[in-house]
Request: fold
Amino acid sequence: MIDIASGVAQMLLMLALAPLVTGLVRKIKARLTRRRGPPIIQPYRNLLRMFRKEAVLAENASWLFRSVPYLVFALTLVAASLVPTIVTDGPFAFAADFIAIIALLASARFFLALAGLDIGTSFGGIGSSREVMIASVAEPAMMMVIFSIALVAGSTNLSAIVAFMASHVEVEVSFGLALVGFVMVAIAENARIPIDNPATHLELTMVHEAMVLEYSGRHLALVEWAASLKLLLYLSLLACIFAPWGISTFGGGAQAAAVALAAYLGKLAFGGALLGFFEVSIAKMRVFRVPEFLGAALMLALLATLLRLIARSL
Amino acid sequence: MSTQLILLCIGAYFVLAPVGIVIERRAATVLVYAGSFIVAVIALATGASVLLGIRDESSFVLPVGLPWLGAHFRLDPLSAFFVAVLNLIAAAASLFAIGYGRHETEPSRVLPFYPVFLAGMNLVVLADDAFSFLVSWEFMSLASWALVVAHHRIQENVQAGYVYLLMAGFGALALLLAFGLLAGPDGSYAFSDIRNGERSQVLSSLILALVIVGTGSKAGLVPLHAWLPLAHPAAPSHVSALMSGAMTKVAVYAFVRIVFDLVGPIEWWWSMVVLALGGITSAMGVLYALMQHDLKRLLAYHTIENIGIIFIGLGLALAFRANGSSAAAALALTAALFHVLNHSLFKSLLFFGSGAVLVSTAERNMEHLGGLIHRMPYTAFCFLAGSAAISALPPLNGFVSEWLTFQAIFLSPGLPQWGLILLVPAVGALLALSAALAAACFVKAFGVTFLGRARTPAAIGAKETDGFSLAAMFALTAFCVLAGLFPGIVIDALAPVLRGLVGESAAVQALQSNFSIVPISGSRNTYSGFLIFVFVAVSTGLAALIVHALAGRKVRRSPPWDCGFPEPSTATQYTAASFAQPIRRVFGTIVFRARETVKMPPPGDTAPAYHEATLRDLAWDIFYVPIATFVQFASARLNHLQFLTIRRYLGLVFFALVFLLLVLAIWQ
Reply:
């Protein structure tokens, strides 16, 4: 019973935090460009507004188009809930390792890309087509990042990785390379600048926002919530693998959990601020430069793996 | 008993063959396919019961074939696994064909060969001596060739059949030589003698090279794949499903049987060859598939990718076995064999789906389809499930075998050889690349065929396919889901196969809670497809319930938004070619020498503009064309030998004899 309760608590925490992180990033971007910007809680208001609006569907929308928002939302939520945030070795830590979590996100992307093709408009098509192209370069890079991390930690289980990273004090070059590779992939996966621009769907940035152009009302709300969850997921991954300080273990007591929660929130705020800063200081790149960007991430991760392998044998 | 039972099934297949010729066509279709279905189910049950330990493995000798040898047959766990997989697909294909076969224009060209083809495949995995193995192998090839050229009035199919026949002959020649070397100078052809034989490393290497060529050409390893995307789509769809889903697996069986069972110990660097071939095959196969707009050809190219994934697993198993880490070898081999089962399930399912589309619209070209999800909802559902499974998405079965392969890759740093340590991560990156590209490929295949707006009247007039075909598709969908949710059952069933081949089985999965699986016993890397499925299903259901309760479930239908400028012409949709364009740009310029040319009329001219994209399969340029040119050159040169006098012929025979005797004398 307590297992299920803690699982549900993690899910609710993720659901509640996701729009906040998105709002924070937007706020920081606005302040850095000398705008006042909407309040941090604006994404909640947006979600509420969209849930209240009527859902408009294209005449030829199929059952798949209508079910995809729910499915994508659920897949992203489950993936996000399996990342250790406050406690490691949670009751469901065995259900999915690092690879499975990334694969769950791939499932969500698969269905969203299909929904982009369902209405038969050129916007949806261009979005889906570019999304899968970006994914096809991002996933091998992500796999190599996982490989280099798993190689050091000796496991692909996230709790085991976190436990190892928390006890491992020395800094290694391969971690640094893996970190840079991971961040590059995360930027691409979350459709952030310089790969894509989450604030628009026109001209140069016709990827994620173009793909979901036909959604409205509650469907759009779910898709946007899922996008926020994905951003939160990557920030949480970053926090738990590369900055595992303060994280508690399951059953470690209320005080440790409170410290861990505070540390987690602090890490999220820091990560969100960095993302906002990064986004205002770089320009969007052409879509066919994206493979070079992600190719660099792949090479960094491969290099991290190689360095690690050589270090092992010395 | 079990071997005799399978042999009886094979006999029953042979009995069914002439039925298609003798009886009136409509009844014959039902009789042959329904009969094949029943026989396949019995064979499947027999194979599965041996695998699960309900029946014992057994062997049997028929007094046919070479007089001093007889025909040996044996059903050990490895054969039993492949018998089960083959006949599972055979049963599904037969069920599908009861409905699909009604639309066949020339049933008498398909019906007699269909059961014979099934019999041939079963005979190969049952054979226990080199002679019956090779005869069955050729039998299987010929029967499938007859099915490839069933629609012989289409010029393309005849060419495909010709290329297939050449490649099948070439592969069989390689296998013939390999068995010749295996049997040694004494000619001990029984597998039990071969297994006990001693051979040098050089000889083993030579055999391995021949086996890779022989089985790889049948399975579709790059660069021996060129015939496969021509021949597999040419056959009727249920036969395409069998060729892609089952016959390529027979080739995998042959590889496993010879390399893991018969040859004996192998040097470690051979695993590098297999790994590299597997990695290249998987990435190239899916890239080729992405560039196709013929639905069946896309599926056939995609088979090449999956064969690559299987060979990555086999290569890893070889590497681990050569270094004595049998637990890791068992894991890698489990991953490969699990993928054998998975690929046969979803690839057959997808071929059935393409067959249903073909019957309903008479179209294989995706650019002429679209919007079929509205007109063929059940087929669309099954095709979607197959697409998700083949794209290695959790919680379906394709993900499990790729996950196991990745877990085996993560064990590779423990290997002592630097070549392997450096190669395996690169192969892992290729595997991840091909998984991501597979998802792209099936977004394209499903999206362009079933989603969007209908592009032609044929697509508008499409109707849902018949009940038998749907039953077969839903059955395979169910198997895909079940194998994904409860992979532990499959992995545990593979245990006796692995004990026979690498001396150890993978971790026992039945001990795990919540149907999770573990790669190596005691490892913390676990995955539970069942739990993930429950989580996702519950979250989806709850999200839908809550959203509908609070926000209502009303929808308003309107014209598409499309940023304010919806274009009514269906030609403005994304096509298969335009969908793949970014990937073609990124990978294609090197891999396929993809070139794009735009012919733009000058301003003011109303002539249409043209955009042309050209691709080349480099395997043709590098391997096939030079070989074909050489053969033609040589045959032109040797042509005048056909017009000699009898005196000169006798002279040639004499000199050949002297030459051979000299060789023999020098040899000894």
Remarks:
- Chain B touches chain A through 87 residues (CB under 8 Å).
- The first helix of chain B runs from residue 2 to 22.
- Chain B has a mean pLDDT of 91.
- The CA atoms of residues 390 and 398 of chain B lie 5 Å apart.
